[in-house]
Sequence to fold (500 residues):
Amino acid sequence: MIIHGIKVTGITSSSKKVKTGYGFVALKGEKHDGNAYIDEAIRNGAAIIFTESNITHKDVPIIKVKDARETLAELCNRFYNYPSDKLKIIGVTGTNGKTTTTNMIYEILRNYGMSVGLIGTLCIKINDRLYESNYTTPLAEEIYHYIAKMVEEKVKVLVMEVSSHGLKTNRVHGIEFDIAIHTNIERDHINFHKTFDDYLQSKKKLFDGLENGKIGIINIDNQHGLRLLEGNHNIVIITYGLNTKATITASAIDSDETTAFNYCLQRGITSISGVEIEPFEYPIKLPLAGKHNIYNALSAITCGLLLDMPIASIAKQVKGFKPISRRMEVIYDKEFKIIDDFCHNPASYEAVLGTIQTMEYNSLHIINAIRGNRGVDINKENAEVLKQWGEILNVKNLYITSSRDVCGPLDEVTSEERDGFLEVFSNTTIPVRYEEKLQEAIDRALSNMKDRDLLLLLGPQGMDKGKDICIRLLKKNKHDYTTVPYIVHDYKENLVPIEF
Fold:
């Protein structure tokens, strides 16, 4: 690629990854300023620098740009010869449900025989090969690298989780989405967005970027869903939900530890290729619990239809869908049961605990990891929901932990976050115990489990090691942990390291 007469052999925002001939884009982050690393980038061989600051250098041209993050995406898009134009792209955004929905879409399409890619929280997939992913929505240079790789591998459809952070920081700038899906929007990420409106407007960018005739799939039951469409009157809108006014809804719902319902297309829709799909109703069996997973399935099934899959084939793939790691994941089910979930905001606690209410068990025990480095407010809000549901469900033991033994600096719980969380439980009927370390909390909880009891492992990063600790302790205590009745998506053993 030639820029200002200079042959550029690569683009990066990391000075450590610069090689001879690279273009270096200096990004200003919350904690680090890329301008401080320009000299290092030049020493490593940078041929040209892009920055928002007024900087000069005697040996290397420095180009001042208005928006460095936007410039990074544009340069990467150009460097890889506009790869997103060469495949169909489905973007999924929302506070909760992105990971389950994108993986369900991927499995529906892949098992039907399509060549499919996925970019998301758990990993990056190119057909059946798995790569590490450090972010829900990776940096622009990583996104474009992997999209280009997908084009090389003849991928026809890319399914992507699109976070509010990724949208606000222009990581997906320049990507032409064919379908945009909204799962839900609830209060979250207040440490980054500061206001709910900023959070909402960041999500809205996915739909604002849709070209004429592209498709927006909106959860009409979510009060903020239709706001995403304000000002965009030239896209095709498909609504879904349990609301009878939605284009797509569910009827005859039967849910306990699995779910059955009828997928109802109430008004005709047109597939991406132009095929007219008339209204119909079809029975669906979903191996997941909870109303929130009905929403996930409705949008995923709709994507299959829009890509010309027959409903019978879609239903077959949904029935065989394998539960996702840390999404209502059953990790032990014998004399008692253990379920692990990545609860991280009030809506996700509501969804999980509301689902637990429909299950049968003797006594309920909960271990909850406090959300570290995300602020006092979100932790108090999480605690309020946990307290309300804990009293409704008559929780026998609640263990709260800071997970000091497993959390890194990015997710370390502050004393303010800990105290704010615990303060909510200062007046409750629930037996509450605080443990600094996750292993101690799990060890204590397991020692109190009786026949047909249920143990919930709840929380985001602070609970990521919970399953491994549980399995180790179960094995130590002579439990047969191999009897888990589900095949889960546990990618760790098969991941290929990030390539750059």
